[in-house]
Amino acid sequence: KIDADRLWGDLMETAAIGGTAKGGIRRLALSEEDRRVRDWFRTRCEALGCSVTVDGMGNMFAVRPGQDPELEPIAIGSHLDTQPTGGKFDGVLGVLAGLEILRTLEATEFRTRHPLVLVNWTNEEGARFSPAMLGSGVHAGKFDAAYAYGREDADGISVETALDAIGYRGGEPVGSMRFAAMFELHIEQGPILEDEERLIGIVEGVQGMRWFDVVVEGRESHAGSTPMETRRDALVVAADLIGRVTAIATAAGGKGTVGHLEVEPNSRNVVPGTVRMSVDLRHEDDAQLDAMTAALEQQIARLGEGPVSLSLTEIWRNPVVPFDADCVSAVAAAAEASGYPSRRLYSGAGHDAANVAAVAPTAMIFIPCREGLSHNEAESCTLEECAAGAQTLLDAVLIYDRR
Amino acid sequence: KIDADRLWGDLMETAAIGGTAKGGIRRLALSEEDRRVRDWFRTRCEALGCSVTVDGMGNMFAVRPGQDPELEPIAIGSHLDTQPTGGKFDGVLGVLAGLEILRTLEATEFRTRHPLVLVNWTNEEGARFSPAMLGSGVHAGKFDAAYAYGREDADGISVETALDAIGYRGGEPVGSMRFAAMFELHIEQGPILEDEERLIGIVEGVQGMRWFDVVVEGRESHAGSTPMETRRDALVVAADLIGRVTAIATAAGGKGTVGHLEVEPNSRNVVPGTVRMSVDLRHEDDAQLDAMTAALEQQIARLGEGPVSLSLTEIWRNPVVPFDADCVSAVAAAAEASGYPSRRLYSGAGHDAANVAAVAPTAMIFIPCREGLSHNEAESCTLEECAAGAQTLLDAVLIYDRR
Ligand SMILES: NC(=O)NCCC(=O)O
Ligand SMILES: NC(=O)NCCC(=O)O
Q1: Cβ atoms of A328 and A200 closer than 8 Å
Q2: Whole-structure pTM over 0.90, yes or no?
Q3: pLDDT digits (tens, 9 = 90+) for B46-71
Q4: Contact B255 A226 (CB under 8 A)
Q5: Mean model confidence pLDDT for chain B
Q6: Most buried one in A44, A53, A324, B270, CB count within 10 A?
Q7: Of the candidates A147, A144, A152, which has an alpha carbon nearest to the alpha carbon of residue A174?
């Protein structure tokens, strides 16, 4: 049995690293705050007798030996980076629940057959460096390291430079650590479990997702003296596209979001010359996602027939990822053993587990969060929910380890 | 007859003060560049025997005596400050054409009945310190001096501090200089004259204009796991409003612009929680502008019935300013005398003349600029256009002076 209060204490203690006035966390990947929470994590793992290694992407691995040194380790973990105005649970819960599990096993002197490895993946959020889940992506062979090192933040600082700046470019070759399986605990970040009063989500897979950059090029001109008819207003066209993205997603039963948008020159009395924006499309069915993408391309082409030009660049795509049936059944058995009300569901958010699924049997566990709210400082879970998630994670690992 | 080459030489010489690589000017109000061009201006005026005074807002007045010391002076002039990426003609032309006129009169030893006063108004652009046309606004009693002194730039530097820093807080009480009339030459900043191949615009007045701030408050949430139906997406609603602003302006035959927009948290996979944006509405008829404002309020109220809340704040308004019929007829007669193709039109942009019109008979003269482009480093006029504008300005002053 895991210790719920101890887990909660860790959650609250680390929430202070990058803690915001509104009770959230701002801990962007490879920032100074990220360095501090990484140092904290390393110290805690080493205090439990684990050996901590860091790979070339800054992914951190804390290994607890098993009975059989021939067996590959079972991985648990998630990520410690957050959104610019993130909450206290997204990612962090999966790592700290893993720490709590190692501590529980250590306290009871229980040794699993497989070694266990607790992982902190680099830049899961994709908020500072796009795309998301970069560290696990290189680990799983989805991105090559050169691509990942070259990704830049808004100030032009590369992942490589940022890794060196905080001293977390490690010596281990990326992807060299092989897993027997991986289990990731995470908050749902959506409203389904709460609405149905379920404590545990047995995650069967992850939605397919595609990220696009759109540039709308019009022409700057004077807001007072340029007639409406001769304007080439980039923002008016961008606004039209935003409405289309919503319509496309709603019609397909998927999701469509413009989360990022910049206007140039962004002056009150100047007709906008350029707009740069993102589009995020998701669906549980890749064929539907293809249809959504085609509809987006069609709207871009249609809008581009006017006096403003548009470009669409796909910068990232992840297909629908179904999780491993054995791992999923271990999660289901664990939830049932504790008598937690549960349901099977798909993840709307991307997760490191979706990358790892390409190289190891993988599954995920969700717990509810208030009003499905995430990527928000008000993100909230109860101690009981966190504890149920951590217990299910421990039990799933033990069930899988015994098979 | 003014000397076109001499005027052009002055335009090119002063364009180097704050000149940019792309051929524009960056000469923000009360900056070091502004100080240098002011010093240049003072030296040139004094060399012509004018006495130069500076008022408490930094407005500069170069007086050339007339035959009748009892008469109030006829004012000409404009502004020497520019947008951050401004062109070589916006404002500057009106001041340097005035200088060329004084030089022409001096060379021909012609003395007008009224004294003439060439004015350089402080902070016309409103780019460094908002609102625009601040110096002429205090002169005309539209703003009080304490308000103007307290306006701050993005770095928190006040107008008062900036005036002292460049040594241009003068001793003359603001507004103490009375004008018999004022004529301002300016580029059109719109496409009408060029499209109709007219060399001179006889400006009958200035559009009414209102500036608003809009805040759209929704709720940040996860782009992957928040169902479309439960989102409170501030940007989707802002986009809807942008379309409405265009529709309102087009329907009313006015202008409507969203030039400034900021998204929070502006992250690719976060449903936007807050959008802050500007709305600029203009019309040649105040009743229509009232109707546009009411339509905007109605859209704000309608959109606010959904899951997102909106607020609208009017931060500045200027009514329609019709120019003085006698001054306008002097401009028309001057254009006709030279045989320049001309038309009457309203100004879409705000100008110092629109403030001065509250305290003296006033009119303006426009010349075309390429593609109506302004507030852009590519802003461009020909030597012939500048010369025609300066000649019309001189002739209008002489016609008015003789009446
Ligand atoms: N879990 C999570 O928020 N991942 C970020 C990637 C995504 O946008 O789904
Ligand atoms: N002439 C000019 O650009 N004035 C600035 C104020 C405005 O019209 O927006």
Answers
A1: no
A2: no
A3: 999 999 999 999 999 999 999 998 99
A4: yes
A5: 97
A6: B270
A7: A144
